[in-house]
Specification:
Low-confidence stretches of chain A: 492-505
Shape of chain B: globular
Oligomer: heterodimer
Shape of chain A: globular
Number of domains of chain B: 1
Mean pLDDT of chain A: 89
Strand content of chain A: under 5%
Radius of gyration of chain B: 17 Å
Structural class of chain A: mainly alpha
Number of helices of chain B: 7
Number of strands of chain B: 0
Helix content of chain B: over 70%
Strand order of the largest sheet of chain A: 1-2
Strand content of chain B: under 5%
Order of helices and strands of chain A: HHEEHHHHHHHHHHHHHHHHHH
Distance between the termini of chain B: 51 Å
């Protein structure tokens, strides 16, 4: 199939799956259709990515839709997380349906919105027009809000209210930022219809009005940063992540945040090429990233709820990705590598935490202690994923964090490097302090063993194995894909592939 | 009606919102602001009034001037909210902060000059002032409904900027108008309704079970 068509099909499949899922008479079938939709989408996404990485960006619809290396890389990470979460959701909700905790209507609503959100996020990655990209983020916000309160409780409604209020303000800010950039681009001598095309802005960045672009980027960073959970705009995140049903938490943490950060990534190369603004947006990103890491580190120490702990880890890791992005050079490469690492690992962490919580009826870490004795799959998976999250060598997160540290050293940003290390150090100690009793503590009362099906074992341990392999050895095609994606953000050829390879070893 | 006049009245309505003590008055003020903004596309387009501009004007007037105020009053009745505003920051304080925000917006407006926008010199300043006012209302007022109002004012600010600064670009202004407002009132309305039903009140500051 030709690539023009595939992009359209990728937008249609989730919508079709959503419609089909809503029409089902049984909740289980609705969930199966959601899984099938995510599976087809993953297959198409991989096929598209293969084409993009071998023969360059694919466009469609008079350049309104365009998938380049950066988009393709993020798209594939998103689809992998979505597929894993869909498999998990099938089993997770299956138990709830069997236990009578989830009605047919709620299951159908979940499946429909789940597929809809998949479509909206796909739109973010395939649109060349920055206005349409914003529409994708906006639709994602709308569609995911009800997912938080699939189980209607006081807490979940509170979390949904916070999410919708704070994120809608964020989305409005992002829109204002988009408008300001458009206003700054009026001097571009092109058809006004194409003014917000990323390709055009990138090509004509030198004639943009610096004042408007600067104001625009502040709005964009605050707006999309809110959605990405960057401190100090992260207040909605721990509530939403902890109250949402676990498959939703996995998607929120595993990829929705990255989708918003991706939008910031799109603007960085444009802003950096505007005369007089070189280094300005990068320094803002470094600042926001460092603040996020430190804020998250402090809150991680004080957590009692397992899912909230993981949510604050997300704030930390979004901060790390932003920091890498701001440092540039190998930092950009590492930020993208870190995106994959964090997404895979956090998804698994939520899977295990959610299953344990579902079986024990609580996410309180004191009451979940000794989880290894409950289930070696879930307890062991949880312990391993927390270890990976806090950057234990030789897993891939250690590698990407090390590369970001290297980027800070390359930029002679010693203060940033020190703060980064302090933040990671606090997180390491704090999270380990939570994780050890969680794995080996005294369970108190004797409880039932928590079962796991073979497919669940696979979705827990396969991603962890991938992270182990990527930490030790990076396959050449993957490295080239990452480099190509990073080159979309930074000036191509700033850091050669060879020097990167020597650094990452 | 000239653009300058509309913008001036928008600033005045913002100040009134900061100082108003009754929720009903606030909703009406936002409605008036919405009606004025409906006139704005007609005023900015001058002699080039096309069907598209007229549709945009009528659409936003109906939406912002009639439908939203009615929905908000309906939500107010449904939720049995008392009509007092109950601010975190008092009215005098709010107005003082409003003055500071207005100064900041004018300062910002002077730095963001739109080329070729004669007669629209204050458009950026008014837009920024509305955005700041909306943000302030969201942060400094207790009622969920008031936060929706704040969001609408912020929206209006973005809309003013869109019309004044980038009216030549098709679709962009409309995108914001349709989608963002959809977020603000439809979803928030449902959320408000749920929150009210579940907790028997709509004060978002009592939503504090989740901390840390």
């Amino acid at each position: 199939m030709n690539s023009h068509l595939v992009i359209w099909v990728m937008l249609i499949v989730p919508v079709a799956a959503a419609c089909l899922a809503v029409l089902q008479k049984s909740g289980r079938w609705a969930l199966r259709i959601a899984l099938a939709g995510a599976g087809i989408e993953l297959f198409l996404g991989l096929a598209m990515a293969k084409r993009v990485f071998s023969s360059g960006a694919a466009t469609s619809g008079a350049e309104w839709l365009r998938l380049d290396e950066l988009g393709a890389y993020n798209l594939v990470v998103m689809l992998v997380v979505y597929f894993l979460s869909s498999v998990y959701a099938l089993f997770y909700f299956d138990r709830e349906i069997a236990g009578g905790k989830l009605g047919v209507n709620r299951a159908r609503m979940f499946a429909g919105l789940w597929c809809g959100a998949l479509g909206a996020m796909t739109l973010v990655f395939v649109s060349n027009n920055l206005g349409i990209m914003w529409v994708g983020i906006e639709a994602t916000t709308l569609l995911t809000a009800p997912l938080i309160s699939v189980h209607l409780t006081r807490e979940s409604l509170e979390a949904m209210w916070k999410y919708i209020l704070i994120c809608s303000v964020g989305v409005a800010f992002a829109f204002m930022g988009t408008l300001l950039v458009a206003a700054g681009a009026r001097s571009m001598r092109i058809d006004s219809e194409h003014i917000l095309f990323w390709t055009e802005l990138r090509r004509n960045a030198s004639v943009l009005d610096p004042a408007f672009v600067k104001a625009g980027f502040v709005f964009l960073l605050v707006g999309y940063g809110t959605k990405a959970g960057l401190a100090p705009m992260h207040n909605w995140l721990p509530d939403a992540h902890s109250q949402a049903p676990t498959p939703v938490s996995a998607i929120f943490s595993g990829f929705m945040l990255n989708a918003a950060l991706y939008c910031v990534m799109r603007y960085v190369p444009i802003i950096e090429s505007v005369p007089g603004l070189k280094g300005w947006s990068s320094s803002l990103l470094v600042l926001v990233g460092t603040v996020s890491i430190l804020v998250a580190a402090v809150f991680i120490l004080a957590q009692h709820d397992l899912k909230r702990l993981l949510a604050y880890h997300s704030v930390e890791h979004m901060g790390i990705i932003t920091l890498g992005l701001g440092l540039g050079g190998i930092g950009t490469f590492a930020a993208l590598f870190h995106t994959l690492n964090h997404s895979l690992c956090k998804t698994v962490a939520f899977f295990t935490a959610g299953r344990l919580g579902q079986a024990c009826g609580t996410h309180n870490m004191t009451r979940l202690s000794g989880s290894m004795r409950l289930s070696i799959v879930w307890g062991g998976g949880l312990f391993c994923s927390i270890l990976v999250l806090i950057g234990v060598a030789p897993f891939a997160i250690f590698m990407s964090e090390f590369q970001i540290l290297k980027a800070a050293a390359d930029n002679h940003a010693i203060a940033v490097a020190v703060l980064f290390l302090v933040g990671c150090g606090i997180v390491f100690v704090g999270a380990l302090g939570h994780a050890i009793p969680l794995a080996w503590g005294d369970p108190g009362d004797a409880r039932l063993a928590v079962s796991a099906r073979p497919a669940e074992v696979a979705i827990v341990f396969l991603p962890l194995a991938v992270l182990l392999v990527l930490g030790l050895w990076m396959p050449a095609p993957f490295k080239h894909a990452l480099l190509a994606a990073a080159d979309v953000i930074r000036q191509a050829g700033a850091v050669s592939a060879d020097s990167l390879f020597s650094m990452s070893r | 009606m000239s653009v300058e006049l509309i913008l001036t009245v928008v600033v005045l309505t913002n100040l009134r919102l900061l100082g108003a003590s009754r929720l009903g008055a606030c909703i009406r003020t936002v409605g008036v602001q919405g009606l004025l903004l409906g006139l704005l596309p007609l005023a900015t387009s001058g002699r080039l009034t096309t069907l598209h501009v007229v549709l945009l004007a009528v659409g936003s007037m109906v939406l912002k001037g009639f439908i939203f105020p009615r929905l908000l009053f309906w939500a107010l009745r449904e939720a049995h909210v008392s009509r007092e505003v109950e601010p975190f920051i008092g009215y005098t304080g709010s107005l003082l902060i409003g003055g500071v925000m207005l100064g900041g917006a004018v300062w910002l407006g002077d730095r963001l000059v739109i080329p070729g926008a004669n007669g629209l010199s204050r458009v950026v300043a008014v837009a920024m002032f509305s955005i700041l006012t909306g943000l302030f209302l969201i942060v400094a007022r207790k009622r969920a409904i008031h936060q929706v109002l704040g969001f609408l004012v912020m929206e209006n600010g973005i809309y003013i900027f869109g019309l004044g600064a980038i009216s030549g670009i098709p679709l962009l202004v409309e995108l914001g108008l349709l989608l963002d407002i959809f977020v603000a009132v439809f979803v928030m309305g449902i959320a408000v309704y749920h929150i009210n039903r579940e907790f028997d009140h709509m004060e978002t500051d009592k939503l504090d079970v989740l901390k840390g």
